[in-house]
Amino acid sequence: GSTTALAADKINVLASGMPLLFTASDGYGIPFIDQNGRTQLPLRKCVASLGAEVDYRQDTQEISITKGATNISLKIGEKFLDINGETAALDTAAVLIDNRTYLPIRPIAEALGYQVKWEADEKTVIIDQNLTADDITIVDLSSRLQANTSKNCGEWFVSDGKLYYYNKDNNLVREDLHKQGLAQIIRVMKDEYTEETLLNPPKKCGNYILSSYATAGMTGSVKYFLTAADGSEYSFVSSTMMPLNFACDGEYIVITGTDAENNLQIIHNGTDESFPTPGIKFNIRYTANDAQRVTAPIIAEGKVYTAAYQSKEKAYYLAEIDLASKKVNLLAQALPQKMQDVNGTVYYLADNELWLYQENENVLLAQNITDFAVSGEAVYVADNGKGLCFLENDGKLRLLAGFSAVQSLEAADGYVLAKLDNSGESFWLLLDDNGNIAGTVLNANEVQYASGTIYAEK
Fold first, then answer.
1. What predicted TM-score, i.e. pTM, was given to this entire model?
2. Among 35, 99, 254, 343, which residue carries the largest CB count within 10 Å?
3. pLDDT tens across 440-451, in order?
């Protein structure tokens, strides 16, 4: 059967801070208020936004909703539902309109561990997860950055209570976030050959701050600077305009992506310990999102992990380099495009597959993956078909944010920071190590997390 909606006023939905957009053209339906004054929301889109999976049997009009150990079942037109074998009454039934299923969201959301509020003045349904995470503070840096940052490169980052950016004079500065106005120049970005420079975004790299700029004119080179907290510095000049990638720990600096014949550079306490690698190259580039990329190496327990190309076999590999012995091992035939070390375990993404390398063994974790990040034992992935997912211990993917494109996933000081896009509107999620959303920021250009605080530029 079918039912006709009584109310056509627009109803807004926020699920864990994420705006759910409903249009007539997307085919999922439009929220409405039924005869009992209850809000009915489109089943599939809303349930997916809560990280649950839904199955609908058209012959019996039965709906099954699953998330983790929670199993919910109900039927169109009936005023009760089953939650893990327990029956619960509903004050309004799920309905079918134009072959689209609508259901009362409150009992479903509460059974899945969420709270539901209705803001009548704004006609907004707010669905919030019951969080046990520590309170997260959100600090808006917009006015501070807009007043001080360079027009050449306005990107920034936060580390150890300090804000790093290029100032109006294009110099790299460090500003204490707790002391307004105390900014210290830590690198004068002056080109000896020309005043025309193109600044590259500053980055945290181990114990150093990485900054760089491209020179104009005849040189066509890029100058890189690794600046330590005590002011000591290493600098490098690359003859290629393609970006280099750096990995640093307390002793070593490793550089990949150079066009030099010896294209793996290793600096140990200021001494160049680079060594020949005949037949193996480490300046691997690949195309992603229509741009050339270089895989960033990582240092873990005295070893470097990076992408390598073996000329003899004409094949790409995940390579392991022992920094003490300089021995090179080719661990897996794959082109790793992203890697992360977690307590000696290396996660890597290659050919849309997420792998784990541990104790001389490669383990396939998930397929059809475009990005990932790990916090503790929590693995978050961007599934090419589903969206943002949490990888359960049994290998299954639990959907966290469906109908939203994942733009980036990055580990951030014990959490994972996800940037998503929902029909052209960007938002950010801070994810803890238990698969929960700990914080949300809407409509920001850049967001970072450090030491219990989300920093945003809107």
1. 0.74
2. 254
3. 887 788 999 988
**15 pLDDT band (50/70/90 cuts)?**
confident
- For residue 90 the two structure tokens come to 């509903």
Q: Which residues contact 24 (CB under 8 A, 6 or more apart)?
A: 30
Of the candidates 248, 206, 203, 208, the residue with the CA atom closest to the CA atom of residue 448 = 203
Q: What is the pLDDT of residues 208-234, one digit of tens each?
A: 999 988 876 555 678 889 998 888 888
Strand order in the sheet with 124-129: 18-20, 12-15, 124-129, 114-119
d(CA 331, CA 333): 7
What b/e sequence results for 424-457 when a residue is b if at least 16 CB atoms lie within 10 Å of its CB, and e otherwise? eebbbbbbbbebbbbbbbeebebbbbbeebbbbb
CA 322, 286, 349, 330 dihedral sign is negative
Q: Is residue 450 classed as helix, strand or coil in its secondary structure?
A: strand
Whole-number Å distance between alpha carbons of 111 and 51: 13
Give me the domains of the chain, ranges plus CATH numbers: 12-129 (3.30.457.10), 136-241 (2.40.10.480), 368-458 (2.40.10)
Give the span between the Cα atoms of 18 and 142, in whole angstroms: 21
